[in-house]
Specification:
The protein has 86 residues and is α+β, with helices and mostly antiparallel strands. It is globular. 29% of the residues lie in helices and 36% in strands. The protein has a single domain (4-83), classed as RelE-like (YaeB-like fold, 2-Layer Sandwich). The chain has a five-stranded mixed beta sheet. The termini are far apart. Strand 2 and strand 3 (52-57) form a beta hairpin. The longest helix has 16 residues, at 20-35. The chain has helices at residues 9-17, 20-35, and strands at residues 4-7, 43-46, 52-57, 60-67, 72-80.
């Protein structure tokens, strides 16, 4: 059973501002994440000392929170690699 996706306003604005190829690539990976957050084909890491995970899509990082008890994934930020962890 897949997870429900929530995309925060800040992340949605960033996603909509991206060029089409990047936007479609990121949307495709987020959809795969919702279907199976433990998918070994996705480049996912738990962020040390934080409740968040990061999904790498090329030079972009998707920072998200995963709630297994209610099967929700909340996309917090979509940022370029250099700015993602600030």
């Amino acid at each position: 059973m897949s997870y429900t996706l929530f995309i925060k306003r800040q992340a949605a604005k960033k996603l909509n501002s991206l060029q089409r190829p990047d936007r479609f690539r990121i949307i495709e990976k987020i959809e795969l994440l919702a279907i199976n957050p433990d998918n070994p084909d996705l480049d996912i890491k738990k962020l040390a000392g934080e409740p968040y995970y990061r999904l790498r899509v090329g030079d972009w990082r998707i920072i998200y929170e995963r709630r297994d008890d209610v099967r929700i994934i909340a996309i917090e930020k979509i940022k370029p690699r250099g700015d993602a962890y600030k």
